[in-house]
Known about the structure:
The protein is mainly β. Helix content is 11%, strand content 31%. Strand 11 (182-190) and strand 12 form a beta hairpin. Helix 2 packs parallel to helix 3. It is globular. The N and C termini lie close together (6 Å). Pfam families: Cyclase. InterPro entries: KFase/CYL, KFase_sf. This is Cyclase family protein.
Amino acid sequence: xxxxxxxxxxxxxxxxxxxxxxxxxxxxxxxxxxxxxxxxxxxxxxxxxxxxxxxxxxxxxxxxxxxxxxxxxxxxxxxxxxxxxxxxxxxxxxxxxxxxxxxxxxxxxxxxxxxxxxxxxxxxxxxxxxxxxxxxxxxxxxxxxxxxxxxxxxxxxxxxxxxxxxxxxxxxxxxxxxxxxxxxxxxxxxxxxxxxxxxxxxxxxxxxx
Length: 209
């Protein structure tokens, strides 16, 4: 037997968005409904590609970087390690990561205090540049975080750029509150978009009961 953990953010009007910016909130519009005599009920959604759970593409931070369709599904499906970093107060450093025993080609998902809040935390725990450099030295495949950003308060965005330049995939906006540290089978399915800097995604972990 196995258990499926949905680690995606629910897309709704009241969802948390980066820095609580109004322009980043999703907008839902009803285009047709049964009450006005229409035969069908249909709606539209306007959403930021970095809203909720999403996969970043290198174009997000690198001029002429690759766009979202260059990240294949085979790169987003496989075993992943959830690591409990709820003890980290400000940022995740090399020293925080070294004891975890991460290995080459691992996928690692950071569980921080962000998973326990539905409000945007302006002081969210982020991956510091030295932590990003350590992950590139290890040769991991991808990193996910439960914050809406992998970094903040670092001029020139060195965490993003270090990871992107070393072909490490970044996923942001995960929800890991109900997931214990451990190894799971991961499925991340971004919307099939092209030419863009990111894509919203449904993310799942599959583990034993």
